[in-house]
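[09:14] KT: can someone run the structure on this one? pasting the chain below
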Amino acid sequence: MKADILDRLAAANPVPTPSSVRVGAAPSFPATAGSRRRRLAVVALAFAAAVFVGGSALALHFGTIEFSSAEHAPPRVVADFESLSTAAPPGMDPGVIAGETRQLRIGDRVLWIAPTRAGGLCYGWNHSSGGCDKLGTTPLSTSWLGRPFRAPAGAALDPSHDYYAVEGFAHAQWVDSVELRLDDGTTVRPELTWISKPIDAGFFFYVAPRKHDVVSAVGYRNGEAVTGEDPLQNPGPHPYARLDERTKLGELATAAGPVRLWAAPTKTDGRCVWLQFGGEEKSVAPCLPKGYERQVAFSTRVDDLGGTTVLSGECGYAAVELVQRDGTARRIDCVGGIVFSKLSSEDEDGTLRALDAGGTPLPGSEVPIRARHS
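[09:31] RB: done, structure tokens below
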């Protein structure tokens, strides 16, 4: 692996990147609002070269590859997996057990995979992508592989297309099959290669027919669609949520009625959080897998609702601090991984930043509040 270590560390947590700015662990820097990241927030692990893998005998049990029988990965690959932890910024260590890294040949491709201390996994394909699910609770993870493309001068890009292939994995606890939809409306079920505990997941790699693209992936459990992903990451405020179990987290009064903050579990035991104002709903935080609700992340939005300015978003820190132009600072605690508060006109001209557990501002987390308006 020769990709920059900071890129690879995005694999530490499966974080969907919303359209608003996301600030990671300190030291951290805001991402551009237009950046597109896959739902697992895993940047490709660009392995430098394929390793020749002999035909190692793998024990099969009811169609599942026994992890313990797989061949150990070469020392250089083990060292690369170790670097995911040793070079990780605070809060971004996936806890990979690098010494247990194995290698499998699946078709004509090589998969390197290792468990994490928290029950998850880290993986990488030769000459392709990879990532980590630290907790092992991400039901479906996909990487969208696009063709090199240069638009004619003045032509508009259609980002929903030109993904010729998709690869990823599904955790057996929540998903037993995956369906991919192509740009012509047809669907296909890619073959899943299942690996036993401690991995407990099925891996797939699918290349669309010539002149076609993959536009979405859906995970099924006993015939029911329970999770899904698409390259645009625009699934609405609460996809696959169990809305009959929703709970109200907070409410703010405005001249045009209340702004309510809702949360609901997903069909795969995760959580969605959204705002409701009148008949409109707005996503506050990505629908995150179980255990990632309070991850090290900071992503907020500012909305003008009923004549009231409302701050909301994901906040994996102790609190945020609003600093007005005159230096006046106001602290807003983050509760359950979420920040939710009214803003004054003085606040809107100031800066928003994250605070650690001791109340110290995190370097690089400052964001002008005016730029946060949705």
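[09:33] KT: thanks! The helical segments are 5-8, 75-86, 345-348.
[09:34] RB: yep, looked fine to me
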